[in-house]
Amino acid sequence: MVVALPDLLELAVVARTADPNAAAVTAAVALLEEHLPAAVVVEQVGFGEYGETEDVRVRVVAYAEATPAQEALLNRLCAKLEALPTATAYEHIGLRRLPAADWTEAWKQHHPPQQVGRFLIAPTWTQPEPREGDVLIRLDPGLAFGTGAHPSTRLALLLLERHLRPGARVLDVGTGSGILAIAALKLGAATALATDIDPTAVGIAAANAALNDVAAAFQADVGSVPATGVFDLILANILAETLAELLLEEGLAERLAPGGVLILAGIIAPQRHLVDEALAVRRLAVVDAACEGDWWALAARQERVEQG
């Protein structure tokens, strides 16, 4: 399957520092990742021909599909960046459009193979060298979320590895590139239903399933929480506010089979309470958690009802 790639919007912030951990850099990253968690890159630029560092700067870049809605979002983010207390440390804040032909090669540079637990996630343009016991996932992410580069994807994969049981029926809501559903099938799940509201992501996920020889057990649909069916393992790697909506308004908990596990990721620390409160309403108890920096992933089961 060939998926046509769209133009991109690039929001770039250049800080007057060579330190990627400087306050101006971390403030820009935090703001952009809150709205574009899968699409933020931090890089050092300005090295001289012989490695001179006098003009080195840190560049924070965020990417989004070139739609009117995303352009409006990125323009709002530019204004928010200009209003940050660290704004005086930025020598450039700008937005530009990148035709697909220009960005596809640059995009690849930021997606080397990633080792996450047993999983070795290798974009199709790389030559991975799996170790004994590695579970290899070949991936062409396109613009879809999920490459192993973002903490939320890594955390979801780690919890998936801990809690998947062979033969499980899996649901992956907001599948993006399909990486989580594909990983589940690679570990022995019987079936995986992957949904996403973005038709482009659904096409990419289906293509990645074929690339990994799991297409026969993989179903990709445009949408969100299915209206019917129960699943032994449910995955959702989105954002905290959306996860709460899925639990409280879209019936995500009702799709969990008795004894099943729900894995939620994409939760930034200041918003974790939204997910914890929604889980409590649906009588789901957190049984496992993983964190990286400010990002959390949670595994939950139905609370046990004590017999009187």
Describe the structure.
The radius of gyration is 20 Å and the shape is globular. Strand 9 (191-196), helix 6 (199-211) and strand 10 (218-222) form a beta-alpha-beta unit. It starts with 7 loop residues before the first strand and ends in a 6-residue tail after the last strand. The model has no long low-confidence stretch (mean pLDDT 86). Helix 7 (240-248) packs parallel to helix 8 (272-281). The protein has two domains: 8-107, Alpha-Beta Plaits (2-Layer Sandwich), CATH 3.30.70; 114-302, Vaccinia Virus protein VP39 (Rossmann fold, 3-Layer(aba) Sandwich). The protein contains eight helices and 14 strands. The chain is α/β, with parallel strands linked by helices and 308 residues long. The longest helix is centred in the N-terminal third of the chain and has 16 residues, at 68-83. Helices cover 30% and strands 32% of the residues.
